[in-house]
Design a protein that fits this description.
Elements: H1 2-18, H2 25-32, H3 36-42, H4 46-70, H5 75-90, H6 96-104, H7 106-133, H8 143-157, H9 170-185, H10 188-205
Amino acid sequence: MESKNKILEGAESLFMKYGFKSITMDDIARELGISKKTLYQYFEDKNDLVNQTIQAHIDNDAVVCNRIIEEGYDPIEFMFEMSKSITKNQRKVNVAVLFDLRKYFKSAWDKMEKFRLEYILKNILSNISKGQELGLYRTDINEVLIAKLYVHNIEFVMTPELYQDISTDFHYIHLESLKYHLRGICTDKGLKKLNKITETQNNNTK
């Protein structure tokens, strides 16, 4: 199992760097320093490798999300911590990768969509509920609608061709999207917290 996990980690790194379509099983075996026989011992074909790589990526994202939840951040801090984690990983990604995945590996892309539409939606709903309990988020909002809008906004953020005329910096786009979401649902108390976080971030980037 350890060998398989190492192959999945190595394959993900190669896919994110070079894209899913162009790289071959021969390339992967050579780059990872293993035989093709070893590679095919764990994966039926490239499609299976892509599917399992995406599943491992999703599982890891869920572990990171749960870890951040357990660290006890308040709902606004939690959103920024998640953004930090997502953009840290995304910066390693060639923008063509997501296009490759969407166009040529539908079953793997569908796994990511399911994760976004179910797991992330559930966590955003939970985040809104906790924020309302703490007086950070407004209670006069339609929680389900706001959560769905946020989840669909992620699709926009994950589609670089839609905003490359504005910026190619994924971190900038994701952060602006997050602030747009939070400013729409925060109470005065929440806005003070949000402004304090963004002010600290701005000072750290000077």
